[in-house]
């Protein structure tokens, strides 16, 4: 008994020693020498990216050295990270004898897959190898990824990975999907160019490709938590995708926030029968089943295809959607969700209205781009690209395609991008998409004053700035202050595609 007590005290001191090392810089970063992805040569990871993208960058800390059992891990981390240990100790992983009936069935499936009985799921099962009794901390420690979770949660992992088979037509394969979210970051030129201490904010959401705890918060991993809309809000918020805000202020959200506290969140979605939709009950449902594949009904592509790519092609949203058998099949899948509460006629009429509203948005965005492009071709955009700093590599400055491009969301210097381009960027990347997003979430204010009105304001500002630049050019020409020549670009609207999409 005395020996065990001394061991606990000793390990507590070990924990404190590690804590001292962590906060005093005693554990150096490792495996951070170069970036990855198509633009990997242009950037280097920072230490925190070991945790956002463990598949690419994580390696064990140099201390402590030694081989430990799961119980020793728990004792040490109880001194080092008591909140972490408390969350695990209260989790289903630590209490397999207290599972609900459906969880017991799931456990039986897991045990069959593993070929052995489980009494608990401990530190080494997730941070080493499932079933291992000891772990060499310096050599074998891993940061769990979705594949490791899939060793036990086979069905859920396969469903999640199957998102890679879907995507938005005319986007890269698998876009948009959670299962390729981090790779979407790596595909963006301006993300590679900008200070990683800033754009790691993108990583902290896009890391869902690597980490199940984006939805199932560690170390409790409660399914009951991940079934609630708040589980989505860390990432699905803000000016470019205010999903939680628009849901919260819709009638659907009003019912949830008023009555949701009394719903039984321990039930699987198929048995829940909520009286109002949630993020999960809508987006995880597909043709009679609930799944971790949440993109089989995806249509919008964050608005990039509808309100940016297709501006260059001159294809309005209704034509793009209705001429695609794939997208119309996804529309039917959405209607199957809507008719759980609404009539088929209302569901079709409302979604058709959303498409028609998107056409109205498209027209304003197209007109705004045509205005900016004409200023460039007349040589009176201020400042012209040749008279301002170039965007950092690897951003390719291909004009007029890049005018108002996504790079301006994260980089600016001395007139690049110009004010009129920045207005256009916010117009297509935020406001245009938000009109459709507001309609999709049935938030009346969301698709009127919060987005449509802001879109019109930017449109008016763009037209006003264009008139000012033309008047200034005419005065300069009349006063012979400096010659102005037209650019050589003879491209017509729709002749070229955009340079870069956001993640």
From TrEMBL:
The keyword Metal-binding applies. Heme c 8 binds at residues 252, 342. Its cofactor is heme c. Heme c 2 binds at residues 127, 219. One of its GO terms (molecular function) is metal ion binding. It holds the Pfam family Multi-haem_cyto. Heme c 1 binds at residues 73, 76-77, 123, 126, 137, 149, 152, 202, 205, 212, 215, 232, 235, 279, 282, 338, 341. It comes from the Bacteria. Residues 476-503 are annotated as: Disordered. Heme c 5 binds at residues 216, 292. Keywords: Heme, Iron, Metal-binding, Signal. Heme c 4 binds at residue 206. Residues 479-489 have a biased composition (Basic residues). The keyword ATP-binding does not apply. Heme c 6 binds at residues 178, 236. Binds 8 heme c groups per subunit. Heme c 7 binds at residues 283, 441. Heme c 3 binds at residues 93, 153. PANTHER family: DISSIMILATORY SULFITE REDUCTASE SIRA (PTHR35038), SURFACE LOCALIZED DECAHEME CYTOCHROME C LIPOPROTEIN (PTHR35038:SF6). This is Hydroxylamine oxidoreductase-like protein. It comes from Candidatus Brocadia fulgida.
